[in-house]
Amino acid sequence: MFRQLKARFGGPLAAAILALLGIWLIVMVTLPQLQMIDYSLRPNLLPAQLGGPEDRWTLTNYVTLFNNEIHRAIFFKTLWSSVLVTLLTLAVSYPLAYYLAKLASPRQAALCLLLLIIPFWINEILRTYSWFIILAFRGPLNEVLMMLGLIERPIRFLSGDAGVMVGMVYAYILFMVFPIYNAIESLDDNQVRAARDLGAGTLRTHRRIIIPHAKPGIATGCIMTFMLAAGSYAVPALLGSPGSRWFTQIIYNWFFEGGNWNQGAAYAFLLLILCIGFMSLVMKVFKVGLGDIAK
Amino acid sequence: MSSQRLMSWALRGYVVVFFAYLFLPLLVMAAATFNDSRFPTVTPWDGTTLRWFGELAADGGMWQALANSLIVAAGVLVVAVPIGIATALFLNTVSSRAKPFLYALILSPLLTPGVIIGISTLIFWRQWGVSGGILLTVLGQATFIAAYVMLMVTARLQRFDRTMERAALDLGASQWQMFRRILLPYLRPAILSAAVIAFLQSFENYNTTLFVVGYDTTLTVYIASKVRTGLTPAVNALGLILILVTVLLAIAYEVKRRREARVPGV
């Protein structure tokens, strides 16, 4: 590898490139993850006990999740809710991505893309906070619903998982729209026309032509959305209540309230495994590789 | 044919509803800034006021958090941009059997939840006596922001015509001169764009920052803590200012990008 770099850039520059890459991948990416796994396999000891007979690998921290009914329930709730957020986001994003890629005129598409990018540039906390105002007990949504006579007294939107999920769909929608838009855009219009001429209806054209072509984009959007939803701390912290805690909040508490980093590391690693598992599943189902995701 | 027309109009209607959904929340938040109410809301409207901007300006904690955010973002630029460029050059030059593995490793920070990057950074540096604070926030954020820089630089590098490189060398330039005079100027727009994105990513990051920030506070962490304790419309005033700044920045960035996209070649 060094030889190829040296042939193109010369010795000093090649060395600098490898040094930067090495520091990043080893010191910032790999070693911290390995250290986290190592931590998760050790008991939480006092400083004096470190290196002593009790300081050895054990699965105790993982058994904790298995035995703690509340944490286990929150873990699975986070899993299912994140899947649901992903599916909802996909359902909301697909028609828009299709419109932008195939129906809108170039000028309309350019304007829409700019409009889409603007909220994407705004802080996740602020986007979530705006829903906090809307969903508040005496907030505008309740007022409008009461004015229309749809409900008689205000609803507590912010006390269950529904508020959290609405906020997540809103926060992560663009990670779904853009990959699908990019994928559909590369589809040759003639294929769609050919399908129509051969008698395929709208639904059939989508099912047999457009969706198969958009698969890499759909897979990328789903992987990103699930990862962001399962790993979100901001949205459940702002829109949730103590009764609708997210797994990330349990992890945070182990670190900064329970003071048990080893336990927290085990939970964090389980969250990582969850995301890797989901990603592998999606990549297998959609038959796409890592190269398709980075596009 | 008419059912197709109907579908197309339904889709148009959907797009309008979608954009309303995208922007209404932000408008509600902005409007609540001007409501003369102790609590941030638009219902009921208690009269129009500008006093929350004054309260915001008088908040020392906010200014400290803003300064920290700017320091962190500057640090992230210094760390992540060179790493991102080096990685892009590496991927563009090297072919090896280890490359697919390395590529997966390079992309992994983008596919890892932010909280986990924060946690692993916090744990790793503890053994060297570094605890949460501005330094760790820079390192944690740069870990995944470097990958974004890499993607943006790679996108431009793939369109680079390598005959220019050979021409420079044939005309007697050293490899360093070729890099300095040909490659780097060609990559400049991508590097600038990547720097803007890296700055914003850092400025608005919450999930990673939360774990590595220690007793310091960045602006995002400050806003989140205000929302949970001691919420007043001053938070909205801050939000409104940030939104306006971002919108201006986003538009300027897009205009610049499109102007460059229209110019072919270098």
From TrEMBL, chain A:
<feature type="transmembrane region" description="Helical">
    <location>
        <begin position="12"/>
        <end position="31"/>
    </location>
</feature>
<feature type="transmembrane region" description="Helical">
    <location>
        <begin position="157"/>
        <end position="181"/>
    </location>
</feature>
<dbReference type="InterPro" id="IPR000515">
    <property type="entry name" value="MetI-like"/>
</dbReference>
<feature type="domain" description="ABC transmembrane type-1">
    <location>
        <begin position="75"/>
        <end position="282"/>
    </location>
</feature>
<feature type="transmembrane region" description="Helical">
    <location>
        <begin position="113"/>
        <end position="137"/>
    </location>
</feature>
<keyword id="KW-0812">Transmembrane</keyword>
<dbReference type="Pfam" id="PF00528">
    <property type="entry name" value="BPD_transp_1"/>
</dbReference>
<dbReference type="GO" id="GO:0055085">
    <property type="term" value="P:transmembrane transport"/>
</dbReference>
<keyword id="KW-0472">Membrane</keyword>
<feature type="transmembrane region" description="Helical">
    <location>
        <begin position="264"/>
        <end position="286"/>
    </location>
</feature>
<keyword id="KW-1003">Cell membrane</keyword>
<dbReference type="InterPro" id="IPR035906">
    <property type="entry name" value="MetI-like_sf"/>
</dbReference>
<feature type="transmembrane region" description="Helical">
    <location>
        <begin position="217"/>
        <end position="239"/>
    </location>
</feature>
<keyword id="KW-1133">Transmembrane helix</keyword>
<protein>
    <submittedName>
        <fullName>ABC transporter permease</fullName>
    </submittedName>
</protein>
<keyword id="KW-0813">Transport</keyword>
<feature type="transmembrane region" description="Helical">
    <location>
        <begin position="79"/>
        <end position="101"/>
    </location>
</feature>
<dbReference type="GO" id="GO:0005886">
    <property type="term" value="C:plasma membrane"/>
</dbReference>
<comment type="similarity">
    <text>Belongs to the binding-protein-dependent transport system permease family. CysTW subfamily.</text>
</comment>
TrEMBL record, chain B:
<keyword id="KW-1133">Transmembrane helix</keyword>
<feature type="transmembrane region" description="Helical">
    <location>
        <begin position="234"/>
        <end position="253"/>
    </location>
</feature>
<feature type="domain" description="ABC transmembrane type-1">
    <location>
        <begin position="66"/>
        <end position="253"/>
    </location>
</feature>
<keyword id="KW-0812">Transmembrane</keyword>
<dbReference type="InterPro" id="IPR000515">
    <property type="entry name" value="MetI-like"/>
</dbReference>
<dbReference type="InterPro" id="IPR051789">
    <property type="entry name" value="Bact_Polyamine_Transport"/>
</dbReference>
<feature type="transmembrane region" description="Helical">
    <location>
        <begin position="103"/>
        <end position="125"/>
    </location>
</feature>
<dbReference type="InterPro" id="IPR035906">
    <property type="entry name" value="MetI-like_sf"/>
</dbReference>
<protein>
    <submittedName>
        <fullName>Peptide ABC transporter permease</fullName>
    </submittedName>
</protein>
<feature type="transmembrane region" description="Helical">
    <location>
        <begin position="131"/>
        <end position="154"/>
    </location>
</feature>
<keyword id="KW-1003">Cell membrane</keyword>
<dbReference type="Pfam" id="PF00528">
    <property type="entry name" value="BPD_transp_1"/>
</dbReference>
<dbReference type="GO" id="GO:0055085">
    <property type="term" value="P:transmembrane transport"/>
</dbReference>
<keyword id="KW-0472">Membrane</keyword>
<feature type="transmembrane region" description="Helical">
    <location>
        <begin position="70"/>
        <end position="91"/>
    </location>
</feature>
<feature type="transmembrane region" description="Helical">
    <location>
        <begin position="186"/>
        <end position="203"/>
    </location>
</feature>
<comment type="similarity">
    <text>Belongs to the binding-protein-dependent transport system permease family. CysTW subfamily.</text>
</comment>
<dbReference type="GO" id="GO:0005886">
    <property type="term" value="C:plasma membrane"/>
</dbReference>
<feature type="transmembrane region" description="Helical">
    <location>
        <begin position="12"/>
        <end position="34"/>
    </location>
</feature>
<keyword id="KW-0813">Transport</keyword>
